[in-house]
Design brief:
The protein has 11 helices and 8 strands. By secondary structure, it is of the alpha/beta class. Helix 7 crosses helix 8 and helix 9 runs parallel beside helix 11. 40% of the residues are buried.
């Protein structure tokens, strides 16, 4: 079950992140580097970790004109990341060009092809957030629409809240379609700024492939005990 957990390195220094990676490499399946740490430590830090065999989910949500997003995605592949994401609101042309360019570059340069997934609706967003940006759909409908578009563009999967897992599984129809789930909060943690949440066990039972968890582990009094408790919770739920 530990392979399903992606520990979010939402930190402000490479030194702090190195210590976390060292302590948790045997406890979780991968680590997420998002905007905060990438801005603080840069691409060189990502390469440092991938050269050491650390699985990295690069969470930068590329969203730009197709050529720019695809070019950035190729650079992510060259960094050796295990998985990266784009924002599905960038549209079909952007996602299709990203998939094609990354596949071609990996084949030509003998690179391991990273998983390519698309962000649907942020877990901090609700219907009011969408309406502010001119989107009339409710979050669930918007998530499904973007997940179907990502699948049509041959993305490997999506990032979506746990509340939409079943909807995506029923609406996409691809057994190999990954669902990566933030907005997961174990019973012992606070909800923070997330709005559409579930417990880790609920999310896995619903069909999530990977859980992105940060604050509930890193801010716990005993972080190692926290991650092990989450794994035990998931295993117990799957056994029943």
């Amino acid at each position: 079950m530990k392979e399903k957990i992606i520990l979010a390195l939402d930190l402000s220094s490479a030194e702090e992140a190195r210590n976390i990676v060292q302590n948790f490499r045997g406890e979780v399946g991968a680590f997420k580097i998002g905007l905060q740490l990438f801005t603080a430590a840069g691409a060189s830090f990502v390469r440092e970790l991938t050269r050491e065999g650390v699985r990295i989910f690069l969470d930068l949500k590329f969203h730009d004109i197709p050529n720019t997003a695809a070019s950035a995605a190729v650079e992510a592949a060259r960094m050796g990341v295990w998985m990266f994401n784009v924002h599905a609101l960038g549209g079909g042309e952007m996602m299709r060009e990203t998939v094609e360019r990354v596949r071609d570059a990996c084949a030509k340069e003998n690179l391991a092809r990273p998983k390519m997934i698309a962000v649907t609706v942020l877990t901090s967003s609700d219907a009011n957030t969408l309406r502010e940006t001119g989107i009339a759909n409710e979050p669930a409908g918007q998530v499904l629409k973007l997940a179907q578009l990502a699948s049509e563009c041959e993305m490997d999967g999506v990032v979506a809240s746990p509340r939409e897992i079943s909807l995506i599984r029923d609406g996409v129809g691809r057994e190999d379609f990954l669902i990566v789930t933030p907005g997961v909060r174990p019973a012992f943690a606070t909800v923070d700024d997330q709005k559409r949440v579930m417990t880790p066990a609920e999310a896995i039972v619903a069909g999530s492939d990977h859980l992105v968890i940060g604050r509930p582990i890193l801010r716990a009094d005993d972080p190692l005990r926290a991650v092990r408790s989450i794994i035990e919770e998931i295993e117990s739920a799957q056994a029943t």
